[in-house]
Amino acid sequence: MKLIVVGIVLGAMAAGGDSFYPARPDDPKAVYLTKDHFPVRADGQADDSAALQAAIDKVQETSGEGIVFVPEGRYRITRTVYVWPGIRIIGFGRQRPAIVLADQTPGYQQGIGAMFLFAGMRPMPGRTFRIAAPPPGPVPPNPAILDANPGTFYSAMSNIDFEIGNGNPAAVAVRFHVAQHGFLSHMDFRLGSGLAGIHDAGNAGEDLRFFGGRYGIMTKKPSPAWPYTLVDSTFDGQREAAIRTNEAQLTIIHTEFRNAPTAISIDPNYAEQLWVKDARMDNISGPVILISNEKSRLTQINLEDIYCRNAPVFARFRESGRQLAAPGEIYHVKALSHGLTLAGMGAVGAAKTSFDSVALKSMPSKGPNAIAGLPPMEDWVNLRALGLKGDGKTDETAAIKKAIAEHRVVYIPMGHYVVRDTITLRPDSVLIALHPDETQLDLLDATPGFQGPGAPKPLLMAPKGGANIVTGLGLYTGGVNSRAVGAMWMSGRDSLMADVRFLGGHGTRGPDGKRESPYNSNLSGDPDPRRKWDSQYSSLWITHGGGGTFFNLWTPSTFAQNGLYISDTSTPGKVYQVSSEHHVRTEVKLDQVANWELYAVQTEGERGESESASALEISRSRNLTIANFHGYRVTRSMRPFPYAIRIEDSRDIRFRNVHVDANSSAGYCLPSGECRQIVRASKFSYGTCIFDPGLSEEVRDREFAFLNYMGVRAAPKPRRTPSVLAPAAKVEKLAGGFYHLGGGTADEGGRLYFVDARWHRIYRWSPESRQLRIVRDNPLEPVNLVFDKAGNLLVVSSGGSGMTVYAFKPDGPEDELIVLNREPASERAGMTAALPASYWVNGDFTNTLSTKTYEYVPLENMFFNLMQRRKDFQYVSPDRSLFVPTDEVFVQGPPHLGYKWAHILQAFGLSKAAAGRHFYVTNEAEQKTYRGIVNGDGTMAGLQLFLNQGGESVVEDAGGNVYLAAGQIFVYDASGKFAEVIEVPERPLQLVFGGKDRKTLFILTSSSLYGARLR
Fold first, then answer.
1. What is the DSSP letter of 509?
2. 204: which of 183, 294, 347, 776 fits an S-S bond (Cβ 3.0–4.6 Å)?
3. CATH homologous superfamily of domain 732-1013?
4. Burial group, residue 979, by CB count within 10 angstroms (0-12, 13-18, 19+)
5. 236 exposure class (CB count in 10 Å sphere: 0-12, 13-18, 19+)
């Protein structure tokens, strides 16, 4: 690598990496940042900020999304450049183009100054955004321009370097808070005095090299709250840490860290799901890994095959100071695991740290990259040069087949290429595209030959034993092609599929270039009734000995039976960062599979289509590793699905860092430049995490770090009656067959009232008569219940434009009902508060980032703040004995669809909280349970951590024992010491004491009501 002289202000620096695109990729639909179209100098001296922004804006103003190609050169900027969603910026030339920030550029000395900021909203006509004469320095995020968010798809930057000059301590090269199919690749960050190369990373990074800077990457929870994957990258010479992180679910593969105090530093008080495989640590003076929040169940740390030299402390635990020391100057960490460890299916987990390392005499070679490179550009044959149109109408099947038959490497410019038959690759075929939403192979609806019933017929087929590469392409199978498979992949272990989008469902532009709506007006199907959900074969089907590497794929077509199906193969395969979503029955399925590794697989169950969908199903398979798996369901869901992962007739499956929940995230930016994120959650996650029907065993913990599933039935556990139960008592099923239960409360006589919200029904169970009765079934959307002293039943309802509370006498006339007025918070003396005992509160408001020191400055903990802050409104019972405090309801979308979120609606039930008494509350998001004293206004004082375990419900009996519903019922004494477990056949969701003596523990599950008598 030769030395060149750069810029007048940066001095001599080492040249960037080899240009990944040394020649111009010709594409008639792309925008080229050239002097004949834009006022660009590219000399490293003139200010090219406006020209870069103009090129990006031109894409947005014409096609909406697409590619800006940047020729080699040096582009000096003086202010933030915004990249709108769906736009990719790609450099080309013998030398990579470089974005340069000169010494002491105004505006990059305080705050956080992004050189490039990937945005989540385009400027719309009539909205003021552009500044005629922008001030020097970074442009603060306009309140009208949201930070990149969970809807920011396809944004990317590749083959462009960044250089930060002296005197810019607030500078970051790229703010990249994006969602699916966003990536940064083949880039050098020469950070000098800067703060970081990447601030808030999203989705994926590949072949990134960071030199200098305070940090290489400074990040937190990614925009959609699922894993961030970094592959084949290098960090060298950071001043404080190569990566500074919290809750990013970091998945790091084949990456090298050199010459820094710390490789990975987890922020104080924060958890992290960290999976690192095949990494090298060289000359790391402090701890290689700095682990925080070590007692949290959300802290899941697993590293394998890490080779170290001159790294005397491999890990340090921030709170305890405990260290894992090196076994020698050069050593191999075979494995480090820390977090909730499960000894087997059905076992009660325990926090555990294991460290397996051995001294070496020398460092082994680094080995090949995880992601293979592309053939030389001189081998590329441009499909447009062969006469294809890509107009979304013309049948181009024959021309594409001819091109593949005659040319090994085919480059496909942006366009919609309609085909009417399977496109079969040669064993050595390479298909290269650069934007998977704008470059598509399209099957139009009702294409002959793809109609069924019939055997599967792929749109794209990779042959057995091949070494194929397919990258940057979209595969669209339409909605009326029942035999269609997006891609049937039988290529071998050296094959690669990367940056491929299986189109259909959310975020899809159809063959006509228009964005497709995935729903009809009530979310029950596609707007076109001919296009039926779950009517096609799998989107990506890897089978018949297929294998290879699959990186950064998005497969959310609601028409496919699943997004990723692997079957009938023992050929090794690796999956890195795949998002499979919105399917009706199963998101990802493996059958007869061996020798595969699946890292950072994320699934998402939507309300309309995925109510009955599992996240992952495995059958007849062995020797699998599944790490940083995130299975979640959106907040809009209506009830839990019984399990996230189903395993049958399989063995030797290694689970590392499993994260199953129901949440969604949103973000926004402050005028200071700091951007924040809040996470909302639903009570409708999965009933259990892992289920094996053959062994009749399950894992109910939704958050854990380590499980080796062996596929062998565990030895029978000795059964004993929990000591808190009455003699001869047991957990008994009282009633079943419900859609989803919640909102339970007991009246003065100990009778239980509860809600089946889907059917608007309020039930009563009478312990003495053992009778179940429907008290009301009016269509009033009941959610939670509570009684006042006079016997009025208050019903918190999701009806109306936000939330409603009404009251009635259970044995009174059915047509009598009082709708309570929402009042401003006022005097509450003498009244009892009705409070949620369960919350989902998470996000990054627990700390704020100081724009002077870039340290997280503790503020009030977000959960503590919620508990201690007086709510703005209240509903008061008819007898004025009880009040229900609440804030505004967040309404997402049209109110009639029921997308309403508030803590009081998401709680599994309400509890009476008398002033001056202690009160227990559990936070499932943090996996923590707290105890505090209730104030007269319903706030809480003296809130203290009671347990490092959270769940769906918590109650206290007369003797001071605490019962936590968290997969099973865990019983603790008043000091927080674990006592025993009460096992329930289904996942308990709410606990209520009832019966005349209040010694009956009612247990509400999703579909059944159980009860147990206490001593």
1. B
2. 183
3. TolB, C-terminal domain (2.120.10.30)
4. middle
5. middle
